[in-house]
Amino acid sequence: MSAPLHVPHERREQVAAALRARLPIGAVLSDPEDTRPYECDGLAAYRQLPMIVTLPTNEEQVLAVLDVCRELNVPIVPRGAGTGLSGGALPIIDGVVLSTARLNRIVRVDDYARTAVVQPGVRNLAISEVAAQYGLYYAPDPSSQIACTIGGNVAENSGGVHCLKYGLTVHNVLRVRVATIEGEIIELGSEALDAPGLDLLAVFIGSEGMLGIVTEVTVKLVPKPAAAQVIMASFNDVVTGGNAVASVIAAGIIPAGLEMMDRTSARMVEPFVHAGYDTDAAAILLCEADGTPLEVAEEIERMTQVLEAAGASAIAVSQTEAERMKFWSGRKNAFPAAGRISPDYYCMDGTIPRKNLAQVLTGIEQMETTYGLRCANVFHAGDGNLHPLILFDANQPGEFERAEAFGAAILALCVEVGGTITGEHGVGMEKINSMCVQFERAELDAFSAVKRAFDVPMLLNPDKAIPTPHRCAEFGKLHVHHGAVPFPELPRF
Amino acid sequence: MSAPLHVPHERREQVAAALRARLPIGAVLSDPEDTRPYECDGLAAYRQLPMIVTLPTNEEQVLAVLDVCRELNVPIVPRGAGTGLSGGALPIIDGVVLSTARLNRIVRVDDYARTAVVQPGVRNLAISEVAAQYGLYYAPDPSSQIACTIGGNVAENSGGVHCLKYGLTVHNVLRVRVATIEGEIIELGSEALDAPGLDLLAVFIGSEGMLGIVTEVTVKLVPKPAAAQVIMASFNDVVTGGNAVASVIAAGIIPAGLEMMDRTSARMVEPFVHAGYDTDAAAILLCEADGTPLEVAEEIERMTQVLEAAGASAIAVSQTEAERMKFWSGRKNAFPAAGRISPDYYCMDGTIPRKNLAQVLTGIEQMETTYGLRCANVFHAGDGNLHPLILFDANQPGEFERAEAFGAAILALCVEVGGTITGEHGVGMEKINSMCVQFERAELDAFSAVKRAFDVPMLLNPDKAIPTPHRCAEFGKLHVHHGAVPFPELPRF
């Protein structure tokens, strides 16, 4: 689908009128003044005003939007809270944004079955807040959990600092209700162990709004652990730190969190949050244990031994809940801290086999010279999920382009060592070219065939996540000799 | 695809000749003497001689079989060890069986990354045997693990007594290589945390050979726990036992195994294996803890408290590894024990929400009267995965039919309480009609569309797992007023 440069007034009016005939007053926005807040998501370098924004309040209205768009052949971009970091909710000039913001009801919490049924616009943290009265919580905790919605989490298969032990969204969602482009409701998954037939729940989670609109989500709740403590370990070089991560896992321990930050990151956050980080260390590791007090004490003891044997230069263990929160505060505020020391930053998201941690960190260090930009490394080390923060100044000519090239080079290195181009932020429009690097033609064909199986008219978030053969061919022709993966050319703000 | 009653000699010779031109000597069987061993799988009541059996020894030969079958329009039934219980490997009269038996090489074990790369014909237990030298093992442990292959486990998303804590096949496989019906190789999944694009690995696992032929599997290995102990708890009625299961889970404990057997089962196995079971109890629970010795001691203590509070009439804890194995021996030999006391038995497989355990057990008890047959209940209680063993004598007129109706009624009850018609044995041909009960038309359409996305000519294990609209319509017309789900009419031995 090739987008026009301009949408005729008549077309906008035609689609808006059809939508207004089916939706309540205030649920259809078409004035640019009103649609401006929807022009980008968390990847704010890319912006596009949509033709129309819709705000349905129930499943029937979601189906109405789908009906109108199908009948008038209008592309649809679904949107949760707009906190996504890969441009998955970037609007289309002649398309409709379907916001789930008003589908924000917690339908029920079943403390016996340990499940919650919620609408897609419910915030991630709101689920844990309501479950707290039963001593339960929803485990996946992306950095944006105050704001992001469960519908967006489903679209991006979001993770968080605890997903090493508790899993990604796909491991914590039992069932979704989906409105299809054909205007039907289907349920995928079940509250039981396994669902017969094809596992379409898993294929739906992480599908970035390309297969259908989620109208209800059943999530798994887990008991709040009785106790938790975190170790902060210092290392004199990143290679030793990277190998220590492997040693913890090799010892058969699955920490509740296993995060690594390099010196640049520690020095970036320390003046900001005073987390008590060792800013002389080349890298620090945060290793959390949770469970019963006895389990926590034993695991902290075992992790301490492993980290010492792996060459930690200093070790501190949180002694109170306040201290545990303080240790985590630095990690959790790494992104805002980057904003304090650099006019702009670009948060990458790639994964690698744990054994290649040290090698990739060394590679990124070398790229800092190549691209003339600093990079702060914070990551979910236990999962091998990297979040390098590339620091740049968009007002300096060429820096944005170098930051993008730097990011693409990191992703290409991730693929080279057997990893992937995204851990938990999705492909969206940001990494669509990198998909050509990650996958063979036959694999991309399989993705496209499954996409078409759900969306014959190809109206649901088109041109995201799955590159066309044409795009990969163009991309290969233009860029393969540069040895790095450039980003798609799209309207920039 | 409607199957003929007879395959012309010329057709068999045409297909066999085309296959022999591409495969080594001995890899194409067409004489009924040679193909007889392939006429059924573990659901031995249903048998069909295939036209031809192929035994490829490498990926290239798998592609050759697919090429020939695609060009000559021959349906293909993939087969692992043939231990499946739902007839997923039941041959087609004019089709080719593609056996993975000779693809039995363990390619490599990486003790650092904790993965093993194996060909699909490698036996489940063989992976753990080779991983044992590194203190690792492959977690999913179906009863048939001595014989069943990893390829078959992938096809059926197999579980086992430890899957409550360690997950099903889908949670323990990182990547598969797949030969498509188009004759291409694709890789689904990755060794990293998450794969970008659609999660086609999850949709492939449990797809019962309908999407492609797996040629290589990368599995996750886990460290052998240092210690393990099992509790055997007795209950005076099944309802109290069922509620005790819920109490264990509600206490925030995830046992390494949580199995329940009713009195019929305990009395059936005790004379056979002398496991020391309480044959006076209405139900016994086996609750296992594993981990470090300290963790095990603490969890056994907590589980004991919970089980006592839930009304256990007696509790025994294994004090040695030999005693632990003895306690498990009864559970693991339940199926052979059924064969000792009854000429025939029919093993069902359904799941229910844990909270409905007591209700469903009571329902099954009532059905014993309705259908005039005994039923021994053994199940993965922690997962809500039931394996009722319906005891019958096929030589008594009408008993087989009553056993099938009994089984179908159990599945219908599972669906009624919010469960599913299969936990880990797959749909195959056995439960294809029950799929019409479980799913709405739009949901079955979604399955079919994804099936077609992978297999345009519809040659891969056709007529299994996903019912056609025609089948559901016929089935509904014929049977909906009976209130039970009959089984498909297929050739019986």
Which CATH-level-2 architecture of the largest domain in chain A? 2-Layer Sandwich
Number of helices of chain A: 18
User: First CA to last CA of chain A: what distance?
Assistant: 22 Å
The chain-level mean pLDDT of chain A equals 91
Radius of gyration of chain A: 23 Å
**Largest interface between protein chains, with number of residues from each side:** A-B, 80 and 80 residues
Count the domains of chain A.
Answer: 3
What is the helix content of chain A? 25-40%
Cofactor (chains A, B): FAD
Protein name (chains A, B): FAD-binding protein
GO molecular function (chains A, B): FAD binding; oxidoreductase activity
Keywords (chains A, B): FAD, Flavoprotein, Oxidoreductase
List the keywords.
five-stranded antiparallel β-sheet; Alpha-Beta Plaits; eight-stranded antiparallel β-sheet; alpha+beta; Uridine Diphospho-n-acetylenolpyruvylglucosamine Reductase, domain 3; 493 residues
